[in-house]
Amino acid sequence: MDNTAWFKNAKFGLMVHWGLYSLPAGEWKGRRMPFIGEWAQSYFRIPNEEYGALASVFNPILFDAESWARLAVDAGMQYLVVTSKHHDGFAMYHSRVDSYNICDSTPFRRDVIAELADACQKHRLKLGLYYSQDLDWHEPNGGGYTQGHTNCGVMSWTNDWDFPENDKKDYARCFENKIKPQVEELLRNYGDICLIWFDTPLTVSPGQSLELFRMVKKLQPGCLVNSRLGNGLGDYRSMGDNEIPGQFMEDGLGETPATLNDTWGYKAFDQNWKPAEEVLRLKRHLNERGVNYLLNVGPDYLGRIPSPCIEILRKVGSERRRP
Prior knowledge:
The chain is an alpha/beta fold and about 325 residues long.
């Protein structure tokens, strides 16, 4: 099934950033980070040995895929995009490629992506998967090593605290041994995927981007690929984070990924929530310009979507249904 026509009319989706970073929740050894919570390992420069130990206590027993899917549907959303692997390299599904995943490395031992795939199918919600194809801080040859620090100025794109010799890194090794086979796992094992949401294409070569694009189209021909695959490839344009364009998209498909507070991954002390009225205003603004609104929530370490998020999204849904 080609999802192009569907995506053009989808208008509204739920993004979920969830991983080991929900445990520190923006704090580490008495310090709080000022930036987005899923970057905690880079901001605090946490060695893989210490950060990986979080997996031994990651047991989100309150995670309920059904409730997540119902919340999205009740809010009027047409699709859900969840992080299958973020920059920290930890997979939120049962990867046979790398044991650094939620089934093999945690007491939880459940495949989050499989449960969400089932819940989305039950509630007629399309499923998309976020996958960090370039940055991977768990890997000695993870990407980003040619780029220095982020525009925040204090976080490294690459893991240069465990693996400081950037000039000796070779992303091709990471790509062949982990990235490519994990993307194949996602495409083969979780039913119909409406889109693959790639991110931060800093090191990936044109040939590698093309290889991933062709793999998606071979294994799931109708699956869309966002422009953050890199090197000019993709089926639709991912706007910048929280980018609100003023002009109408004259051609093609577009989507704005946006936060409900000031972070993507869970930060316990970030309570700067957008009210439902602002969410609806932004949705109208974007949709009138031909752009989908992909609104993010960051569940906590127990698997709970924060209650303010739930209240806001329920109000968005009720306001949307009001005549």
